[in-house]
Design a protein that fits this description.
Pathway: Porphyrin-containing compound metabolism; protoheme biosynthesis. The chain has 467 residues and is an alpha/beta fold. It is built from 14 helices and 23 strands. The structure holds flavin-adenine dinucleotide.
């Protein structure tokens, strides 16, 4: 191994961000705002492109997402960032088409009045699940700060069918996880807070359900016309960061003056010195980098399991899809396909000349699925899609398969407390922060908030040290 080359400009504040997904880029953007034009902000990304789980491709002449497809517009961070980087005019919203629940060979309407599949009134879901609220003991369901799994909560209060037929498919779309191992506090924080005040689950749900409004409903989701990768590119440009692609960060060391990382290929390593470091990578690389620095934080991160998913996309020239945005289906239906999005029904900006359907496969523990070759996965997806829709589908004019191995972090009960303890342990080391889907929430909006929070923390200490 040749001696490491050292890069750096003496006298300028330098922050190194490890990971060029949306978290790292949102952090870079916020750091530029906080530290001004002179700061050196470096983003080291191991892949040859930015964006991580956001990746837009040209498919059948349309910009189609191979990973994340929508932004949560119900919270401010994603739309706020898009506007801040000049994409305000490109934000587009879905049509009024709603997703269906595919059950017993039928596409059924999702009942109204639920929160992630948990009803505010068992009668609302009677057509789909046998739901009966169990007697309670008059005490709040959760003690302050306590946690439990979504599965344990819903099974014990409303029964197995509500969990298996409604809640699991809803959460499966986001986490691809096992509801018996998903933390209520991490995946439904608002509900967890309400459970500290209520003895009945339905009362907690009714407290936080969005009240019906008289005016036009504000859309919950949005995306960017032209693809979410535009958000990645625009954020990166607006951050004016030095982007280093193909640069894997392999080692992190604390020095008396800040941090030093070893990056790049093993035979030709590069040593980068920085005043501060933000780790915006998945849990496993973050744990590796922190092992020698702060073992407690490394242990908390290495405990985060990941689920894998595969997506098949199909473009059809002539097909009569239902007027729905797609469907979800419970694992009890015994299918490989767990959800489908009728992209061109859901997103009017994609146009309807060609119908584009994205089919997702894979739940936690179904990693073997990813071993099948592309034609086999596509064939399975297409056959099952036809079964769900009750029709023989024509041959697609174009198809593709994308695999996301180990892509979706699973927050088990106690996740928030473990991450808080990891952050506390890291707090004794100056100028280092962790952020991203592994720690603060899986959705893009949550990742942006997490990157911004890390940047705020670092900017505050770096600026204080300069005074
Ligand atoms: C199939 C799929 C669909 C999804 N759909 C949605 C959706 O519709 N809406 C939504 O809000 N969210 C969705 N998500 C979740 C969301 O996309 C991700 O949680 C989010 O984009 C993660 O961002 P991140 O920056 O934290 O991590 P990542 O995107 O994983 O970025 C981390 C980056 O770090 C790099 N890296 C790792 N190790 C190193 C290292 N040692 N050195 C340098 N670089 C390194 C990686 O290459 C990667 O680019 C989806 C996720 C998947 C997989």
């Amino acid at each position: 191994m040749t001696p490491a080359r050292v890069t750096g400009t003496p006298g300028r504040t330098r922050v190194l961000i490890v990971g060029g997904g949306i978290t790292g880029l949102a952090a870079a953007h916020r750091l530029r705002e906080r530290l001004g034009p002179d700061a050196e902000i470096i983003v080291a990304e191991q892949a040859m492109r930015l964006g991580g789980k956001i990746h837009t491709v040209d498919f059948a002449g349309r910009p189609v997402e191979t990973g994340a497809e929508s932004l949560l517009a119900a919270r401010p961070e994603a739309i706020g960032l898009a506007e801040a980087v000049g994409l305000g005019d490109a934000i587009v919203y879905p049509s009024d088409a709603k997703p269906a629940l595919s059950l017993g060979g039928e596409l059924l309407d999702f009942p109204a009045g639920h929160m992630m599949g948990i009803p505010g009134d068992p009668a609302d879901v009677a057509a789909i699940a046998n739901a009966k609220e169990r007697p309670d003991n008059g005490l709040p369901i959760l003690e302050p700060g306590a946690d439990m799994s979504v599965g344990a909560l819903v099974r014990s209060r409303l029964g197995d069918e509500v969990l298996d037929r409604l809640v699991a498919p809803m959460l499966g779309g986001v986490y691809a996880g096992d509801v018996d191992r998903l933390s209520v506090r991490a995946v439904m924080p608002q509900l967890a807070a309400a459970l500290e005040r209520h003895a009945r689950l339905t009362d907690a749900v009714n407290e936080i359900k969005r009240p019906p409004s008289d005016g036009p409903r504000k859309p919950v989701f949005a995306t960017v016309d032209g693809g979410l990768e535009r958000l990645v590119t625009a954020t990166s440009a607006s951050a004016r960061a030095e982007i280093r692609l193909g640069m894997t960060v392999r080692e992190l060391r604390q020095t008396p003056y800040g941090w030093e990382v070893i990056a790049g290929p093993v035979p030709d390593p590069i040593k980068i010195k920085a005043d501060a470091v933000i780790l915006a990578v998945p849990a496993s690389p973050a744990a590796v980098l922190l092992r020698a620095v702060e073992p407690q934080a490394a242990a908390a991160l290495s405990g985060v399991a990941y689920a894998s998913v595969a997506l098949a996309a199909f473009a059809f020239d002539r097909v009569d899809l239902p007027e729905r945005s797609g469907f979800l289906t419970p694992a009890s239906e015994g299918k490989t396909v767990k959800a489908a999005t009728f992209a061109s029904k859901k997103w009017p900006h994609l146009g309807r000349r060609r119908q584009i359907v994205r089919v997702s496969m894979g739940r936690l523990g179904e990693e073997a699925l990813l071993q099948y070759d592309d034609p086999t996965l596509a064939k399975t997806a297409l056959r099952e899609l036809g079964e769900h829709l009750g029709m023989r589908l024509p041959d697609p004019v174009e198809q593709r398969v994308d695999r996301w191995g180990g892509a979706l972090p699973q927050y088990t009960p106690g996740h928030d407390a473990r991450i808080a303890a990891a952050r506390e342990a890291l707090g004794v080391h100056r100028n280092i922060a962790i952020a991203g889907a592994a720690v603060d929430g899986v959705g893009i909006a949550a990742c942006i908030a997490s990157g911004q929070r890390a940047a705020d923390t670092i900017a505050a200490t770096v600026v204080a040290a300069d005074r």
